[in-house]
User: Fold this.
Amino acid sequence: MIAIIDYGVGNLFSLTASLKYLGAETKVTGRKEDIKAADRIILPGVGAFEDAIAKLRATGLVDTIIEETAKGKPLLGICLGMQLLFRESHEYGVHEGLGLIDGQVASIEEELTAQGIDGLKVPHIGWNPLRFDEDEPLFKYIKQGDCVYYVHSFYGRDCEQSLIADSMYGIRITGAVRNGTVYGTQFHPEKSGEVGLNILRAFMEV
Assistant:
């Protein structure tokens, strides 16, 4: 069973629909018992980092998530859910994350400006080719250059030791990270068509 963590942040319908299409047993939950009983965990999320991490901490689930992943239980953070895995975020202040991925979350717009890159809109919304490490099990059913769907204004950086995929949007955008069995995708696999379904299928097998 895949436990999809519900902490009041994000639309869960397309994610649960995609997983059910793939034949996965899912449970949208905010209960520790369900997370402990699950084979895998998904942490979704949309919106602002500060609000999301506060809501996640308010559920009392943070210790459970950290304990279960320490045992080797696979976890997939999606979009803001991936960013919450990082050590800290610099989105309108400095905010502490879960610390499961070393690195920080930073502004795309500020980095584009710092590098003198004009003409790219932020938020970054749309389809971009994905480059990834060939030996990563999360990508075993897709091919280099397959496009995935992004919608975000902040991105993970200083995370080279965990980086497993990226896309270019003027700057190098962290597409996916991994630390042991903790995975994160900045893009939305549940909104990325057949490519995204194949990434979710691979996560069901890690």
Notes: Residues 12 and 36 are 20 Å apart (CA to CA). The mean pLDDT is 97. The longest helix spans residues 193-203.
